[in-house]
Amino acid sequence: MMHFGKVAAAFTVAATLLASTAMAQTVLRSSDTHPDGYPTVEGVKYFGELVKERTDGRYEVEVYHSAQLGEEKDTIEQVRTGVIELNRISMAPFNGTVKETIVPALPYIFRSEEHMHKVMDGAVGDQIKAAFEDIGLVVLAYYDAGSRSFYNSKKPINSVEDLKGMKFRVIQSDIFVDMVAALGANATPMPYGEVYSSMETGVIDGAENNFPSYDTAKHFEVAKYYSLDEHTILPEVFVMNKAAYDQLSPEDQEIFQQAAKESVAKQRELWAAKVAESRKNVEAGGAEITNPDKQGFIDAMEPVYAKHVTDPVLKKMVEDVKAVQ
Q1: 0.90 cut: is pTM over it?
Q2: Residue 66 — left, alpha, or beta (φ > 0 → left; ψ -120 to 50 → alpha)?
């Protein structure tokens, strides 16, 4: 009888330990508007794998891709209020709340993707990170989103003049609206998920984005003219709710930061491969790619800078970006 009592007690202890372990695990939810397999989605997944491994399973990251938790505008509020803990999102929608994000969103501010990497990995990137904390978010990483260019369903774009009067979807950002206006076209801000049907039905003539988005969202099916004007090289931002981050121990914060840093290298590698693959896909699908003279586009951006870079802090940031070699 004593033997069975000891066995029962042992099972009770084991069950209690298992329950304690299960309770100790914290599941963090992360949103992304892009489909499963997209480089940003895979970057956050990799971050989650590293965090789970290095915290011995105490933290797990669930990535909700394909806008399952809502479009970007909705998920920004969700992560700020703590409804979700993590979010990978374009930097442009933050232009109205974090003024420092205006600088990387400016057209032609970066000379190349390599230039963007150096800027975001350095002092300017740190300055933007600090500003995000004022709205209750901690920046864990900057991810690549390549260069954005115009595409449409009507005609090839070889110069600024070809854009005049056309209707383009843009990110919900005043800078993007003003950029399109400066080129003589009409901007229509709308959620990413509505772009395909809007081009298909003629509500808009086109949009602007990178090759992977143009490919994975199948926009090339309804807008076959892609103009490689590369007006912005806008990094993505991977953020965490600050209250949730502050609840981490200093040791776990270090784990999260290091995992995020390593995920950046992984995401950049995946991004470069995806751009090459997507360009092949859209060309095979009938897309026509043109290479307009960019100088006309660059010259047209003067009023955009004049309107949006009036704050002394932003003026200094623009100079700092240009000084990075």
Answers
A1: no
A2: left
Which residue would you say has higher pLDDT here, 11 or 147? 147
Burial (CB < 10 A; 0-12, 13-18, 19+), residue 215, is buried
* Side chain identity, residue 195: V
235-274 tens-digit pLDDT = 999 999 999 999 999 999 999 999 999 999 999 999 999 9
φ, ψ of residue 183 to 5 degrees: the values are -90, 5
Positions of CATH 3.40.190.170 in the chain: 2-145+235-275, 148-233+279-323
Q: Which fold has domain 148-233+279-323?
A: D-Maltodextrin-Binding Protein; domain 2 (3.40.190)
62 neighbors 27 (Cβ within 8 angstroms): yes
The first and second tokens of residue 119, run together, are 């800027």
CATH of domain 2-145+235-275: 3.40.190.170
Q: Which CA distances in Å does 285 have to 156, 178, 214, 274, 281?
A: 16, 32, 11, 16, 6
